[in-house]
Amino acid sequence: MTGIDSDQVTAQEFEPTDLGGGRRHGRAGAPSTPRRAQLERDPGMPASTWRLRSDAWEYLKFAIKRLAVSGGDFSMIAEDGEVWRSLRSLKTIELYWAGFGQRYVEEITDLLSNGEFDRAHDMITRAVNRLRGTTVPDTGEDDLTEDERAELKDRQDTRPRFEVLIVDETTESGRDELHTDLLKLRNASDQFIYDYVIVPTADDAVAAALTNPNLLACVIRPGFTDNTREVLSRDLRDSIEFAHTSTKESPSAPMSPLNSVRRVLRLADTLANLRPELDLYLMAGAHIESLAGALTHRFRRVFRREDQFELHLSLLRRIQHLYDTPFFDAIREHARRPAGVFHALPVSRGGSVVGSKWIGDFVDFYGLNLLLAESSATSGELDSLLAPVHTLKKAQSLAARAYGAKRTYFVTNGTSTANKIVHQAVVSPDEVVMVDRNCHKSHHHALMLTGARTAYLEAYPLNDVAFYGAVPLNRIKQLLLDYRAAGRLDEVRMITLTNCTFDGIVYDPYKVMSECLAIKPDLVFLWDEAWFAFARFHPVTRKRTAMVAAETLEENLSTNAHAAAYREQQKRLFDPETGVPAPDSVWLEEDLLPPPDATIRVYATQSTHKTLTALRQGSMIHVYDQEFSSGAEDAFHEAYMTHTSTSPNYQILASLDLGRRQVEMEGFALVQKQLDLAMSLSSAISRHPLLKKTFRVLTAADLIPEEYRVTERTMPLRDGLSTMWDAWVRDEFVVDPSRITVEISGTGVDGDTFKHEHLMDRYGIQVNKTSRNTVLFMTNIGTSRSAVAYLIEVLVKLAGKFNDPHELQEQDALTEPAAVMPPLPDFSAFAPDYAAEVPVEDPSKQLPDGDLRTAYYAGLRRQNIEHVLPHELRRRVENGELPVSAGFVTPYPPGFPVLVPGQVITAEVLDFMSALDTREIHGYDSRQGYRIILKEVLEN
């Protein structure tokens, strides 16, 4: 994303702008547009280049065709500032995309300046057709020039196409020669085709990486210069600067006299930091033998300039590795092969379906391939999920590469199972796990199953919108320090946090893990990234994923600079003579540094099916554990065997394999579009007169308390990529911009009613979550511009209805405004029978961990429990009793328990439960009431 101006939304006078803000006069005969009232592009909301590029070409086609048909003259086009602004933007954009290039835009500009509208329109149409993927020209083929015939032939080539960035200061004739050589290299037998994007400077290379998601490789030739000569937006310039400054100088870079090598390495590191999926190649002249050894870890290969064909083969070979889907290919081959089934699974190969008089519609609906692909075989190329050695093992290795993990494991029954696998693999009975109180219920169940002692961490509450935020880092550090003070730090095994939360609050995993390891260097971390799998594939969001944080932490701990900084900090944290730690306040104020020998043990679970392409229940476990091969692997495999079906769904596994291919090939493009469309939606709601009267988009100011934000912008991406980048680097918490939480108090109905009766039942719009007074709209990689437009249209209709006095009178009943929602309850406490022992010397320092497992099984025995209706339970609480929950009580969504086994039930909990509007509450029977443990059981 670039900070290029967005859709037209406001009417003001304007000065024409370039790609993102620079002013420039047009070519001869094309003066800048005079100031006049017209729809202006909103300068606040950035648009992705993919959308601006497409819209600019489409607008030019529409505008020039209108002029050509009407016989207009130059004076008419001179008044259309949008035409010249589109041309100026495209002149810069086309530098960073393969296709027509800057000279093509300049030629169109000249034609328009000379009034040759028909010829200009033909050239514009060629560009539009290419972007649309159209293979039929607007005119007959007999009318085409030789160049147009070549362009049409190229567009008719249906092979997958990618783009290769070449960084080199070269002449126009040099660029033409490169493109000519490329066409000669193409072969009809090649599986893929590619085009070159040639830029002259390091800045332009970074701009291309930020704006062009079609790039999958980069060839650096040392002849490039540093600074761009293009007129770019302030946002894009700032983003380029962020990219350069966030790349650390490598200590292993060769020294003078090869200063050009250092420049090459720095650019390579910057591009790899931005887009790790880009394959980097170096094409040099002299001394490539000596360069090869120093550059191997940065570049896939080093070539001499005359080795163009070898480079061509390397590019195609590497893309083939990305394109490879070993398990999906095996499934497809299995479906094509004749077989006799004398095994389980009657549905295999359609045996029990094809020919049936009663369920023939199964085949009609799902298709025969689904049945042909079903099998019970776990040998040969189909492999076994429990002990993979062939295609599944390779598919999981490819996924590990894509997600930046040391190991990756496929899970076919959702992230709930993935979470249980990790807990069982890492934690033993009576070890302490610090866990977000509001994490998904699967973590609570996993803690019960493992017998771990649960120490709940409290997230900050957002009472006005009736949901929780995230757990502040100082709260985590303080609890670790409390365990240290009590002499129990050795019992703390793991920290489990949700990143990002259901409502889009994102942690800084690097900072959390770094500071926690400073207190306990062998901590294990489990990051539940069920809703964050997509984040790996965008340059900014990637930095806050668990795998990237683990990799960065490992790299930093190995540096001399970190070791020196650590030694200096230890002098402030410990008395040099006695070794006594400084007061907790010192530890909380410092940005703690972990010891260089701290162990990096990080696990991430992802619901791939929730935010990327996979069939329902397709999930992954990513592992970045330095102790995995030295003992942890055995425990993990046992846990994996415990929870993984011996009959996994092969279609889910194949979809995970295919989904991995997709994100490696086009993940950046898809995520960029996802975030951009989310900003379109939020801007429409915030600016439409009727919508902003009825709805309110919640920003970081609403979702993150001020003390956890350094940056001032409350919707950073709306101000441009660089603003978002700044917030995601500096703030403790940020908001996932793909999630739009809308406050709906202005409608007069609660969130559940709005979701079911107005959005889903009436208009077929599906949303995942509501609170008492909010509804959460999520964009994903499958969201389209049409879908966003439809949602906006529906919201406008609903806003009109809710603001119509006649409609309000006819409405059956309005719920009370959400402002009456009681405060969100913190975790009360474990009952004394299940809680940690109270220190005799200082009862106020009792630690919060409790025994879920014992309480859980006590609550399953009928003789130990009773059911109590809410009004009776409230009476007992008011009389001073401490009733104890016998099980989990979990409103869904969002899916975290309000009560867990062994928890004391308080008035605050009952107040919250009584005000819930959620229709589905697991563990609570409205006819019988709450299930509580009998007092006699607790007393015994």
Strand order of the largest sheet: 8-17-16-15-13-9-10-23
**Low-pLDDT sequence parts:** 1-46, 251-258, 812-819
Distance between the termini: 64 Å
Strand content: 5-15%
Gyration radius over CA? 30 Å
Per DSSP E runs of 2 or more residues, the count of β-strands stands at 27
Helix content: 40-55%
**What's the name of the CATH homologous superfamily of the domain at 158-323?**
Response regulator
Number of helices: 36
> Could you name the CATH class of the domain at 158-323?
Alpha Beta
Shape: globular
Biggest sheet, in brief? 8 strands, mixed
* Average pLDDT figure: 86
CATH fold descriptor of the domain at 158-323: Rossmann fold
| Second CATH tier, the architecture of the domain at 158-323 | 3-Layer(aba) Sandwich
Task: Tell me the structural class.
Answer: alpha/beta
Can you give keywords for this protein?
single chain; 940 residues; alpha/beta; Rossmann fold; eight-stranded mixed beta sheet; five-stranded parallel beta sheet; 36 helices; 27 strands; 44% helix; 13% strand; globular; disordered N terminus
Question: What does this protein look like?
Answer:
With 940 residues, the protein is an alpha/beta fold. Among the domains are: 43-135, no CATH class; 158-323, Response regulator (Rossmann fold, 3-Layer(aba) Sandwich), CATH 3.40.50; 326-337 and 345-379, no CATH class; 665-813, Aspartate Aminotransferase, domain 1, CATH 3.90.1150.10; 832-937, Alpha-Beta Complex (Molybdopterin biosynthesis moea protein, domain 2), CATH 3.90.105. The strands form eight sheets. An eight-stranded mixed beta sheet has the order 8-17-16-15-13-9-10-23, with helices on both faces. A hairpin with a 3-residue loop joins strand 21 (769-770) and strand 22. Mean pLDDT is 86; it is low at 1-46, 251-258 and 812-819. It holds the Pfam family OKR_DC_1. InterPro entries: Orn/lys/arg_de-COase, Orn/Lys/Arg_deCO2ase_major_dom, PyrdxlP-dep_Trfase, PyrdxlP-dep_Trfase_major. Residues 325-550, 601-785 form the Orn/Lys/Arg decarboxylases family 1 pyridoxal-P attachment site domain. Residues 1-47 are annotated as: Disordered. Residues 1-11 have a biased composition (Polar residues).
